[in-house]
Amino acid sequence: MIGDYYTANHAWGLISKEITSQYAAEVLYFVQKTIEEVHHQYVEMGQASDEKEPWSMSMLAVEDREKEYSKEPFHVLVQAFLQAVQALGEKEGARFSLKRGLSSKSILLRKIALRAIRESDCFNDNEKIALICDKSLTWYMQCKEQVFLLAKEAFSKVSPEMQNQLLDIIEEGPSDYRKKKHFLGVRFFLESQI
Fold this sequence. Notes:
The chain is mostly helical. The protein has helices at 2-44, 55-58, 73-88, 92-102, 107-119, 125-132, 135-138, 144-155, 160-172, 184-192.
């Protein structure tokens, strides 16, 4: 499978600039549909549901890491998605695709959308914090790395009212608070970013 990644990555590298500059919206649509179709196939086989995906998809690292040894062809889709969002810039189509990604049944697509929101100019910092103030997203365990990174980047740049809104949601905790009590330190972490 690792050879598949390098072949796909090399091919994407050869065409990515031209394709994303001319067909960014189509690339976004293709990546979203591909990931959602793979998720749907796993659902059909009984290997996934709205709350879970196979380990190989839900644990796929969507953040760039220096020592990432596990390279999957999905990483090429991650890069294609991020490059297409950057190419679209602040257009409404990019915002729509990112919001659609956040509501996807695929954990992988939600994680990619959160990273793209963090790295793009499609949303201002107040909008970024407002997106993660959605309680279901704030407490969605499978995307916690992307939620924390987004909050860390935008938190110190938003109004005190928006900061307090997020802190209140964190302090209130999820509905199944006992399972997720390890999030208590998040408030102190965010307050230290001010």
